[in-house]
């Protein structure tokens, strides 16, 4: 992936995460990220505790973060791995 495409993907991810932070309709905000039409991961933000959880479906693992930038990087890396596996 070239540098411009990488920035575009990362910007899209960050925009979705920032929207989760801004949303106030529910305590738990959930977004799903997919690649090639398959759900790769699910991200949940606990608005009360400010804890982000990434559920990676491929390896059946969960990761917890307290920083939106780290969440964005992890999502980018997981999507990148999927796209370069096939």
TrEMBL record:
Protein name as catalogued: DUF1797 family (YkuJ)
Originating species: Fructobacillus cardui
């Amino acid at each position: 992936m070239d540098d411009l495409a990488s920035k575009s993907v990362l910007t899209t991810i960050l925009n979705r995460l920032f929207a989760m932070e801004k949303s106030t309709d529910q305590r738990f905000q959930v977004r799903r990220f997919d690649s090639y039409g398959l759900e790769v991961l699910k991200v949940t933000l606990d608005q009360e505790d400010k804890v982000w959880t990434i559920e990676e479906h491929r390896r059946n693992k969960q990761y917890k973060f307290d920083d939106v930038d780290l969440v964005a990087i992890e999502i980018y890396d997981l999507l990148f791995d999927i796209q370069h596996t096939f």
